[in-house]
Amino acid sequence: MKEIAEIKIPPIRNGTVIDHIENGQALNVLKILGVNENNIDSGISIGMHVPTTKESKKWKDIVKLEDMELDETTVSKIALIAPEATISIIRDYYVAEKFDVKLGDKVVGLVRCSNPNCITNKGEPVSPKFFVENRNPPRLRCVYCDRILLNISDNLI
């Protein structure tokens, strides 16, 4: 019988590493990035249910994106589903920048209200706006109708 070798996620030369994603959320991160089988131009590595050294958690997800750097809006969306994530910008195999995602006090225009009767869903020129009631796990309350947004990943814009 042949022994199974451990497989590691290979390093990337240039791009972005999103680490410490909440276990099971890597596919939602790919959804935020708009990645699908039709638009992949560079390598993407995904690690799901990977052991972590953080004391509060046992498992995490990780996503590595070759030749891609994230804009501020994308990072803000990632913070909504992975509030403990870290973003590392890689250049020539070295970490050029590293930062934690941050969730502010308000979220504007990133998610839609789940209340079909909310003014933001009635065709009015009003951008969805939420108060952040809790950061980890994220809990958002609509400014207009007071609805608590239960499933953030399904309501991302």
UniProtKB/TrEMBL annotation:
Similarity annotation: Belongs to the PyrI family.
Top-level taxon of the source organism: Archaea
- PANTHER family in the record: ASPARTATE CARBAMOYLTRANSFERASE REGULATORY CHAIN (PTHR35805:SF1)
Specify the Aspartate carbamoyltransferase regulatory subunit N-terminal domain's residue ranges: 8-102
Q: Could you tell me what the cofactor note in this record states? A: Binds 1 zinc ion per subunit.
| InterPro entries named in the record | Asp_carbamoyltransf_reg_N, Asp_carbamoylTrfase_reg, Asp_carbamoyltrfase_reg_C, Asp_carbatrfase_reg_C_sf, Asp_carbatrfase_reg_N_sf
The Aspartate carbamoyltransferase regulatory subunit C-terminal domain sits at: 106-149
GO biological process: any one?
pyrimidine nucleotide biosynthetic process
Which organism is the protein's source? Answer: Methanomethylophilus alvi (strain Mx1201)
HAMAP family reported in the protein's UniProt record: Asp_carb_tr_reg
How does it associate, per the subunit comment?
A: Contains catalytic and regulatory chains.
- Entry protein name: Aspartate carbamoyltransferase regulatory chain
Instruction: State a GO cellular component annotated for this protein.
Output: aspartate carbamoyltransferase complex
Quote the function comment for this protein: Involved in allosteric regulation of aspartate carbamoyltransferase.
A GO MF label: transferase activity
Binding of Zn(2+), residues: C113, C118, C142, C145
CC cofactor: Zn(2+)
- List keywords of the entry alphabetically: Metal-binding, Pyrimidine biosynthesis, Transferase, Zinc
Q: Does Ribonucleoprotein show up as a keyword for this record?
A: no
The gene behind this protein is pyrI
